Each structure stands twice: as structure tokens, then as C-alpha cells.
Amino acid sequence: MPNALNIPELFTLLWLLAHACLAVELSAEKTSYTGRNFTHIELYTDRNGVEYIVLAQPDQLINIRADFQHAYVTAIGPKNDSAKCLPHQVRQGLAKCNIQPMANHVKAMTVKSGYLYFCMTYLCGSCDRTPLTPDQQLVVNFTAIDEKLKSATRAVLCRDPAAKTTLTVAPKYYSLEASPEPGLYLAMPFCIANNLNLESSVESVMSIVSLSTMQPFKIGDFSPFWSEVIPSSNKRKQDVLSYHYSFSYNSGSYSYVYYLLTAKSVRNSEFSEMRIGRFCSKDLYLSGYVEMFITCNVPDADQRLRFGYFGEAATFVLPGRQLARSLNASPDEPMLFYTARVLDQELNMRQGVCAVPIAELNRRLDAIISDCGRGLGYRGPSYIRQHFPCSNRGGWESADGPPFCAGSSGLQTEWTGTVDLMGSQHSYYGRFLASVDPATELLTSLAARPVYNGRTALFVGTSVGGLIRYSVGQVDYGSSTMYDRADVADGRAEAVTELRAGASRLFALTASKVSSHPYADCETRYKTCQSCLESRDPHCVWSNRDTVGCLTWLKPEQPDRDIITSAAECLQVSSVINSSINVNASIMDTLVTLVVTKEPNVGIYCYYMNSDNDGTVFETRPSELQLYRAGVGVSCRLSVPDLRQYLGEMVSRNLTVRLSSAPSDATHYLVSVAVQIYNCRRHQNCTRCVGSSAPCRWMPRNSICVAASDVASASSSAADVVVSGVAECPAVWPLRRLVLPSGHSEDLDFSLSGFYPAFMRSFICELNCSQQPSGPLRLPATILSYSNSSSSAAHPVLRCSVFELSYAEHEPVRVCRLNIVWHDGLGCSGDLDSPVAADGGEDGGSLRLYKCHRMAEQCDDCTLYTEELYRCVWCVASRRCSPTCPTSSAALPAAAASASVPRRGLCPAPRIDRIEPARLAEFVSGLELAVSGANLGNSADGVDAYLMLHHPSPAPPLACSLVPGSYRPGKAFRCRLLAGPADGSTLQLGSEYRLRVRLTGTGAQAGSAETTYSEPLMVGRPAVTAVSADRVQQSGRPLVTLFGSQLDSGSSLQVTMLSDKYMFVSSEVLTRTADNVTVRLGNFHHTGIYFVSTTVQNCSESKRYYRNILLQVLPDAQPKILRGSLRRGLIPSGGLPFDIDDGVGLEAVVNAEMIFFDVAANKNYSSSCARRNRTLTSLANGDGAVVWSCPSPAVPAPPPAEVSQSTASRDGTTAQELRVKRSAAASSQQYGNNFTIKYRLDSLWFDYPISVSLVPDPELLEVPSIVSVALDTDSRQQLGSREFKIRGRNLIPTLLVSDVTVMLGDWHCPLRTS
User: Fold this and answer.
1) Which residue positions does the secretion signal occupy (predicted)?
2) Which phi and psi angles does 467 have, rounded to 5°?
3) pLDDT band at residue 513, thresholds of 50, 70 and 90?
4) Residue 1217's pLDDT is what?
5) Using one digit for the tens of pLDDT, what is the confidence trace for 551-581?
6) Which secondary-structure segment (H or E) carries 525?
7) What are the residues whose beta carbons fall under 8 Å from the beta carbon of 48, sequence distance 6 or more?
8) CB 1096, CB 986: distance < 8 Å
9) Using one digit for the tens of pLDDT, what is the confidence trace for 287-311?
10) Given this model, what pLDDT does residue 491 score?
């Protein structure tokens, strides 16, 4: 028997399988490696061409393959625990050394010639290099670094993570004759050594660090410039600079190092100037360092505006041919791409991506040095920003620039100067290649690569996690297009801090992960040649050969001639022949021909897709080519019987015809067209027949719809009429809405179009108001005359006379089907179309019968809320809603009998049913009353309301003004008491008021009036006597109930928790009655004792009431679940107690709930939890005082596995054995449904420690027989120790020991599992 797979082996196998899937995913989807606080990323390639990534975190380096399969971590040194002042600190007079222990943070790193160079925030700014070793840890000798640091002479490298340090590796010379060694060229903020505040005081300096000694080889004697992190504020001090990016470039035998920086303007401290600086690595004294202005903007911006900021992003890479040509640069020389935020003429901030050729930078920088060397008056920039012209410090001996690289000058003194507005040849101005609104996001990272077609693919990361892709052509307005945007931070709005361009993928870094993304996804995004090449993605090409479809082309060279790169080369359809096919044709097959502009140079295949384009319906066929005057016809042959079967019972259906060069796959195709398949015979009336998109014609004499090509064969004589337009169709339009009171008689008039007297001799109106077997009611119709229509052609008027048509059912409206039929007197007939009603309402073929008394039972419902078309009025005498009121009778005079309330009239007998609040407060100024009832007028202008003192004695009424917009005719309104009693007193507690409402009529009813009174309104004062919970969590926001009396007094009630020490906390009132108020407490700022206060609030006045009802606010609960209480299974029947039985603060929880989430079914089940207090024994054991127990809900179980009857009969299984097998299968089945659980303590959510699985309900299989035991003590002692075994299915892991209780008489039997 083979060895079983143990758990470690299984874990390893699953881990390898997961990574294998990840590697497969890399070819189509982005992949990622997650972590925390990532700061830097670099790419390198081993000798086999495999890409690797180096990641930096605050305390470690990670060496990982680019497919994220294996990661190797190197910790970055120990914390610095030095408590002594270093020698340089003592020399500088530092009184105290408050240098706290700190961890190493990687501040900068770069890859050069097989090594990783990096600098850390260790004391004195330690730097080192390590060889790049694929699939291994990076080895760093921290002991050697510590030794070098003992004699270091610089200050502490700034710990601020936002203080950026740039690092470039270039040759470093000890003398002009010596061979160079790698030097680390740093522009970095150092903490000021002579300042006690080491965390906040920094200076920006440049230095060249020697790795052999860890000493700066040369630091320029810079004046200290206070550094800042851009953009920390809009107001800045003068003479402040920040470095943003550095890079190196070899020109001939010289190596240069360049710095992008932002410096303050010497004229206005609110603005910053963008500059680029450079020095030669052979310049041993850094005396040839030189700067120039560099900026760019939108095309219409003022070029003299040079103020702004460099962004956080720059890259120095090869450009595309088009961009290089438009900038007069060589495509073989790298170009500097950088982001900038600049000001326009109105000082509005703009940001974008810019590009500048390295040759243009060098030419201008050389000119500055050359001019300054000649002693010209140009005020050139230098690293010392003082107002001195170059000529005041002397010139250089040689006019041939640049100096200090040839070694002939020997001058060892710096020159000084500042940039002035003169000398435009010494600055560079460009245009944005791409721009983004800085109000929504900032540009934080940048990458670029040239593409085969000469364009430049530009990738920009943003401060909110966006990755934007641009296709850049020339530096012309509109030449750059954004073709894609994605979120790489998974919605967390983390900044994309760095981008790195790999061989086939782009790598994006955020604080929490590094992710890889294909440069393009042409294969899956674009299905047609046209969409592929018009997508603006510069990587997409179209292939018609081995792999047909849209391809991602990453090679720098042009594709071969079988690859299409321009949309103009795609097949383009100029016309389609036979785009509508009649399946009633007598032919066996037909051709659909796509006329294209040029002859295809590959074989073309025809694919036939259904109307949803999700599958082929016919066999793929090769196309047939035909020559036409307009081009080349690509014909696809179709079988008419197959089309007839495809159409089925439908009238028409679309069929998509695709042309592809692939003989077996229609996923990617050249072009496609929709072909309409139709059967005119299925149209049942003229309007739909000739109004369809298919070429159908209607023959009214025969009442059939035929294809235009079949008209001749369908005609029986030359006199047959053929209708081709909707206006010619035999149809009727009702001249008014077809609405009729039940039991009334009325004439229905129609306008008749398409009247053909030759065979339309008579007409019948058919009315079908029920489904009775007797069939429709047939009424003769008469042609009266021609209508007085304003249309150009008069139509006859057709009248149907309806006599006392009614229905017996109780519904308010009955819809009758109306159909008008013509007859020729010879046995032929046909239906007239009924397209729409005259006023554009419902179907003209419907007649509505209605009963007003079934629509409304009250006057206001009848006159205000029934539809106008039903013409219902209210009959006063009969108190009934009716189309008309009855005439006089013996019991009523004529005037009283016929009295009615017209539409929108004033109804009699108004009534107030409800007023809120139901109880008045002591003060009424600003009090709003919500009044509802019936027959409360028909206009807000006709409503007057007054609050009248009813008991104990009369008093002047208080006017209650209607709140604008609150009136609902007849039903409700809100009114506001603007003032209380005239003497300024409050209302007396216990007194009674009534609201009097007077309603007046308008229009024809002007002068009429109705009055009504409300039930008595008592004056009360709210009083809280108790609260449902005396202890709550600080942030739980639980629901609690306040108990008391007269809590419904006043317009609204506010509940506030007050404290003598802390800020008050407002609560949300959810429900309110006279006896209790339900509120949701707010978040308390502090724990402690609070008391309840209530405030009665009117619109303009309020009054607060205090009660000594205390509430103890405790810290938020920190729940735990004991290991012995953890459950791993759910059962379908539910009821298993899930206990929250450990932790701190459970006694402060008011409400608890558990949510069980079925992962597979995506469905939630909830369970309310009950609070249970611990026993004294449990408290003595140190357990918490409170347990929350949540019974599991009932969840549906999957159907049990079946043992089929046929299988059982074949193997000889009896019916009894079959039942046993089915029972065993049902009881032993493991359902496998996984559930995750969350529980809520008030408003705070927590995760259950483990997920659980659904298992079958437990089942007892064997119960011991009855045991007779004497109940006296001696007999019990004689019984001794005895075990009773209870067997069952699914008892474990479903049940815990605490779930089962076994009683033997009144004895508790202890349990154990086996």
C-alpha cells in the first residue's frame, strides 16, 4: 500500500499548484505580490533572460522572480542603539545626543552592472552594494558597514519617509590619471548635525560616496539650504530647493550626472522654479556644476512663465521615432520624461508629462558655462544662489566648453550667479505630451517605451491608484491620446509610487503591493480588425495568417507583411447585397454578398452566428469572390430550408455573418454584417406588415401579408389592392377616448382610413367584455360622413351605437376588446387595424367600462383622485360617487336630489381623523401640527386653522398657518403656530385644546364653507423614568428604550446624553409613543457616567428636561471565543448554540446578532443572540460574567445522493436494501458548503475565528434499554460506576459535549466522546 500523503507534503503540493496557476495567469491577467510599506522597486535580468524584481520595505530587501513564484527576504541590519555622541557631533558642539534607537529604512536604490546599490537611514547615511543573485537572498555585510561608520563625519540621514533621496551610480575619479571606480552620486536631505531637533531639521546636499570607505569623496561646500518636501504648502521660504530625480549619461569619453530640482525664486517666495543641474564625473572639485531652467506647459501657455514644481516622477529612456523626430533628436539617444505642475497666465495649476532630448540639455548647459567662462554678463545659475554675475568672479582660460572634463583648466574655485530673465537660449521650454487635472489626482510615477510604429507608449501612475496609458506621436496638440485607464490599488486610493518597464510587462508599486500588467491586452479586448487597429493602443496589430486576430506586438521592429498595422488595410464593407432574406421563397439556397473596397489577399471563410452572437448556427463555408463595379464581392451561401428552421415561429430574426481568415475559429474576424431573416406571412394585420423593416406588402382583400417579391404570385386578379405604406392600411382611429359608464348608452365614432368601397360593403363592431362562451356582442356600424379633420385628406366617420352595456362584477374598470370587421357581401371579411386612440392614449381597440362608486367611497376621493376621463361626481343626497346624480323622487325634492359636488369641488362633512403630535407641549411658538382626515377642502387657499382652548375656560384662538407645500387636497396638511398666548404665558399642564378648521370654496363654489373640529389635545410634559440598558459600549451605538410618561408631547423629541466632565452625545430618535421612545445612541467621546436629558423641540423654540437616569459607558467589548466553544459544523435544522463566552466588556453589549454567509450560494442567514449570565461557579473560575449565545439558523440542505432504482435492480438489490442504502447515503453525506460567520455586538462587527461546514443533522442509532435503579442512597452507592454507550451518526464535529444532557432519573450522567 503506498504511503499516505501527510499534511506537510499536501501543503507543499497545494502551494506549488497555486503558484503554477499564478504563472499561467501571468500570461493573461495582472498578478501581484502583497506586503506592507513598499518603498522602492528595481528590475534586473539574469544571464538566461529571466526577469527579477528587488523590492524594498522599511526593514528588508526582497529578491523575487517577476512571475512572483519565489521570494527571498533579507533583513536590513539591526536597530541603531548608540547612546553616545559620535566624534563629529562633539566637534560641532552638540550639547545632547538624543538619538533614539531606530530601524534601518531604505532611502534609495538602483541597479547597475549586476549590482544593487542602496542607501539606508542608518547613522551617517550608510550605503552599500550587493551582487544580484537570482533565486537567492541578497547578501549584505552589515558588520562591515558598522566598521566603516565608526569614523564617519557626516550627520544623520533624514528619517522622514517623505524626504526624497536620489541615487545614481556613475564613474568616480580620485585623480585625472586614476581609473574610476563606481561612485554613488547622492542628492539627499541630511539631518542638521548642529541642531537638537534631528527629526525635523534637514538640509539638502549633494555628495559622492565611496563604497570602499563609506566616506563622501567630495561634498561641495554648499551653503545650507533648508529643504522641504514638495508640495508641503503653498507658502514657501526663499532659497529652498528639493531634489526629485537624478540620472547619468555618457557622452563620448565623459560621464555626466544630472539632477532635477525645484528651487525657490529669489524674487517671490510663493513660487518655485524648475531646474536641471549637471556636473561631469571627472570634475574632481564639483566646480563645473551648472543649472538651467526647464519647464513645459500646454501649447497656448506663456513661455515666460517658468514657475511650478517637478512632480515625483521622471524616467530617462529611449523615445519613439515620431517623438524624437519632432524634437530634432536621435531615436538612439535616451530622452528625459518627467512630470510637472506649472502655472498658467491666471495662476491656475496644471500638470502633465514632458519630454526633453539630452542633446538639447547638454547644448544649453555647455553654452552657460562657455558664456560664464568668457566673463559675459549673463547671470547664470549655480549651486550658490547669490546675486553675483559670473564676471565678478573671473573667467576660465579656455573658451571651449565644457570645462573641467578635459583637465586643462586646473581652476579649483566655484563660480556663483543666478538665473535672470535674459538668455532664453539657456533655458528649455516644451509642451505637455499628456495632461491630467491636478484637482482630482497627482502624477506620481512614470514609465515609457518605444513602439514598432514610431510612437511612444507612455505609462503614468497617479496618487489615487490609477494607471493611465497614452500613445504619444509628435509634440503637436492632439498627437497624444489616452487609450486605457485602470485601477492597480484595488480601490484603496494608494499612490502608484514607482513604475518599471520590463520586457513584456509593466510593474507598478504601491505601498501594499507590486503588480505586473501586460503592456496591452489586444488578444481578448478586440475581436475585429477595425476595432483592433482603431483602438489607439500602439501595441495592437492584426494577423491574418497562422494566428488570426488582434495581437500584442512588443518587438521594436516592424511586423512582416502578413501583419496589418493600419485600419485602412482592414476589409471595409461598402454595401451588402441581399441583406434581407424571405424564407418563403421557392429557392433552395441564396447568397449574402459583402462588397468590399479591395480584394482580400487571404482566404476568407463565412461564419453564421445567432442573433446574440454567442454561437454558430450553420456550418462554416468558404466564401465565393465576385467582381462588381463598386469593388469585390465576398459571397456567403445559405440554405433557405436551414434559414426557415432557424426562424422557427418568429416573424423576423437577425443572423450575423462574419468573415474571417481562420478556417475553424470565429472569435476574431475581419468584418461582420447583420442579415434579416423574415417571414411576412406571420404578420396578422396591415400596420405591422408594412411597418416592419422587412420588405412586406399587405393585400387587404385577402387579409394576408406577403413579401414584395411574392405579390404577383399571391394576386388572384389585376384588381387586387396592394398596400405598401401604413397610411394606406384599412384602420380606424377613435375620435375620443373609448370610456363608457357601465349601463349607459353612447355612440362611438371612428375615423376610417384605407377605405376601399370596391369590397368593403358593410361593417360590424364586435365587443367582447368577458370570457363567456356566448362570444362577443356584435353591433352594426354605419358610415356617417367625412370628418372635419384638418388633415389634407378627409376620412369617412364610422359610428358604433352602444346601448346600456354593463358588467356585473365589482371591479372599478372592465376593459372590453373592440374589433371592427368589414364584409364584402360575398362571404369575405377582414379586420380593421386599431393602432392608437385619438389622443395618443391606450390601444384604440379597447373600450373601458367603469363604475364610479367602485372607485371611491368618499367625496374627496371621488372628486379629486379619480381620473378625469371617468367624469365621476359626488351625489350629496345618496352620498355616492356616480357619473350623474339621480333626479327627484318622492322622498327628495328635485333640488336636493340633483345636488352634486363637481370635479375639484368642495366636499361636505369634513373630518379630522388624526393630529400629530397627539399631545401639546407647554410652549406652542413654532409648534407644527400634522393634520389628516377626509374632505379637508380642495385648495390650500381655502383652509383656515385655529387652536381653541376647550377646557377649563375659553381663551382667544391661536392662528395656525399652513406650511407651504404641505397641503394634500382633501386629505392632510401641516400648520404652524407662530406665537403663543398674547400675554406671553405658556400653556397650562392638563388643559385641553381643539383644532378648528374652516374650509371655503373657490370658483363656482365661492361663498360656500364647511367647518370641523378635532378631538381634544392635552398639554403635557415628557418625563423619563427608566432606560432599558444601564451599561453600554463606548462605540457600540446600541438601540435602547426610554420609558416614561407623556413622551409624545411637542413637535419632536431630542434625546441627549449629558456628562459633568465630557462633551454631550446626541441620540437618534427612531420611534416615539406616550410611554416609550426607542433611540440609537451615538458614539461617546469618553467612558464614564452620563445622564439622560430630553428636549421638546418646535421650529422656533425648545425646552430641555433633565432626569437623574444614569447610563454607564464602558470601553468597547473585546470578545473572544474559548477554544472549547468553537464549532466547526452547521446542521440544516439549526439550533446549535454559538457562544461568545470570553473577552472583556460583554456585559456592556445591549444587542447581539450572528450572520452566517453561505459562500457558494452567496446568501446570508441571521440569528439573534440571547444574553446569559454566568453561574457563581463559573465566576469563581475566572470566567466572564456574561455569555452571548446565538442559535444557528436553519439552512437548506442539498438533496441527498440517490441510489438509482435501475442500478439496484441490475445488481439484485431488494427494495428493503435499497431503502437502507438511501438512508445511509443521506446520513453520511458531507455537504461541503462552507460558511463564514460575522457577529455584531450592537454596531461593532467581528469575525468568527474559523469558517464552518454544513454537515447532516446528528442522528442516534442505538439507545440503551431502560435501567431500573433504586433511588435510596445505599442503592446508588451499590450501583457504582457504569457506562452507557449512545451511538449515532454525525455527532462529531457537529455536537459539543455541552450540547448533550443525559439524565438517569434525577442524576446527571457525565459524558465523554470516543
Assistant:
1) 1-23
2) -125, 110
3) very high
4) 55
5) 998 888 888 777 888 888 888 888 999 999 9
6) helix 522-525
7) none
8) no
9) 567 778 888 877 766 666 656 776 6
10) 81
Residue 291 near residue 420 (C-beta atoms within 8 A)? no
Could you give phi then psi for residue 1136, rounded to 5 degrees? -75, 130
Closest CA to 657 of 688, 692, 703, 618: 618
Confidence of residue 1212 (pLDDT cuts 50, 70, 90): low
C-alpha span between 1282 and 1276 (Å, rounded): 11
Burial 1178-1216 (b: 16+ CB within 10 A, else e): eeeeeebebbbbbebbebebeebeebeeeebeeeebeee
Residue 1264: what pLDDT?
58
Residue 929: which of 941, 945, 950 has the closest Cα?
945
Give the Cα separation of 662 and 748 in Å (integer). Answer: 65
User: What is the rounded average pLDDT for all residues in the chain?
Assistant: 77
Rounded to whole angstroms, how far apart are CA atoms 688 and 833?
9
Residue 518 has which C-alpha cell? 501586460
pLDDT of residue 422: 39
Write down the residue that cell numbers 424564407 correspond to. Answer: 583
| CA end-to-end distance (rounded Å), the chain | 28
Residues 926-977 pLDDT 10s: 888 999 999 999 899 899 999 888 777 777 888 999 999 999 999 999 998 8
Phi, psi of 460 (to 5 degrees): -125, 125
C-alpha cell belonging to residue 966: 404641505
Per the CB < 8 A criterion, the answer to whether 978 and 961 are in contact is: yes
Residue 533 belongs to what H/E stretch?
helix 529-533
Phi/psi class of residue 709: alpha, beta or left (left: φ > 0; alpha: ψ in -120 to 50)? alpha
Asked whether the beta carbons of 149 and 84 are under 8 A apart, the reply is no
Write the DSSP assignment of 1290-1314 as a string of letters.
Answer: S-TTT--GGG--EEETTEEEP----
Asked if 1058 contacts 1085 with a C-beta cutoff of 8 angstroms, the reply is no
3-state secondary structure 1154-1220: EEEEECCCCEEEEEECEEEECCHHHHHCCCCCEEEEEECCCCCCCCCCCCCHHHHHHCCCCHHHHHH
**197-213 residue pLDDT tens:** 433 444 456 667 766 65
Q: Which helix (H) or strand (E) holds 1012?
A: strand 1009-1013
CA dist 307 and 269 (Å) reads: 11
Alpha-carbon distance of 42 to 36, in angstroms, equals 17
> In this structure, what C-alpha cell is assigned to residue 676?
434579416
Instruction: Look up cell 554678463; give the residue.
Output: 377
pLDDT in the model for residue 1039: 93
| Predicted pLDDT at 40 | 92
Letter for the amino acid at 368?
I
Q: How many CB atoms lie within 10 A of CB 727?
A: 11
Instruction: Answer yes or no: pTM beyond 0.70.
Output: no
Distance, in Å, from the CA atom of 511 to the CA atom of 1275, rounded to the nearest integer, reads: 75
Task: Single out the residue of 347, 413, 400 nearest to residue 370, CA to CA.
Answer: 400
Q: Angle CA(645)–CA(647)–CA(650) in degrees, nearest 5?
A: 135
Tell me which residue has cell 438517569.
1304
pLDDT at 840: 39
Question: Residue 472: helix, strand or coil by DSSP?
Answer: strand
244 three-state secondary structure: strand
Closest Cα partner for 675 from 601, 740, 618?
618
Alpha helices in 350-438 (DSSP H): 358-373
| Interior angle at CA 346, CA 340 and CA 349, nearest 5 | 25
CA distance 1311 to 1314: 10
1310 CB-contact burial (10 Å; exposed 0-12 / middle 13-18 / buried 19+): exposed
The burial of 978, by beta-carbon neighbours within 10 Å (0-12 exposed, 13-18 middle, 19 or more buried), is given as middle
